[in-house]
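quick one before i forget lol
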Amino acid sequence: MNNEQEVLSIENVSVSYPTTEGWVQAVRDVSLCVNKGQLVGLAGESGSGKSTLVLAATRVLSPPTVRVEGKVEISGRKVLDISKKELRMMRWKTFSFVTQSAMNALNPVLRIRTQMHDAIRAHVPKYSRAEADARCAEVLRIVELSTSKLDSYPHQLSGGQRQRIVIALALLLEPELIIMDEPTTALDVVAQREIIALIRRLQRELGFAVLLITHDLSLLLEVADEVVVLYGGRVMESGPAYELLREARHPYSKALVQSFPPLHGPVVRQEGIPGTPPNMLHPPAGCPFADRCSVAIERCHLDMPRLVQTGQRSIACHVQANLSGTEVERT
């Protein structure tokens, strides 16, 4: 690792899927890092490559399902190079997951207690049943659920309760990093806010790092320390959340920020982003957002912009480069 504070380091990762027409590159040359105690958000609309990047980088997706190039380190371990046995021991102890749908993540025919015990026994076989019960009860209290839920089946719980159970499972073995892929999908607005507030509180109290994946940029700008915006499998912009909230610079980031209505002030008509995402079977030669961008210049359609850094921000945009003229290519 380049930095002792880094829990997750993804460097120049590209991910391709095999198809009847050849390899399709869904993620192209993406880099990001998550430091200890930090919450980093990965944003972008459906199909931007968010989940593909993380699932391939952690080898949930693996050959021949995908082809992964680049370098990934979690707590100093080169995840793409270690054995399956070593990777299995890292999961849940070093890093864990909170998936999109809690109902699909949980086994519908097993009680919550049994599922938690299975996770503990897989990694800490020396735990007695009493010790496992005590740990299960502890993490349920941490996520603000009654310990009586241990004897419930998933279908007996509400959507918000199931999501808290999945978070509790992720916390069982005190990992350094928790990857959360759309953790509030299918929940109502009130439950979403409760879950996000819970995640942020636990992250601050327990000190683990979080990579939070979502299409809801407005949510990330409220809770994240850093935000990385993906489009067409590439990083469009990244930087501190408060800076993106104050002034998003990339046209795509601006469009995402402007797509959610303000809570105060006059009622205004919200505008969507015209067009559709690029066909990754035949990716454009230039910026993947150029065909949908209202300020694109000729060069945007011809050349792929490089990701360059200005201060704490990184932006891949020819228009912004022309406006400032001061960017220095990131190394």
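fyi Residues 325-331 have pLDDT under 50 and may be disordered.
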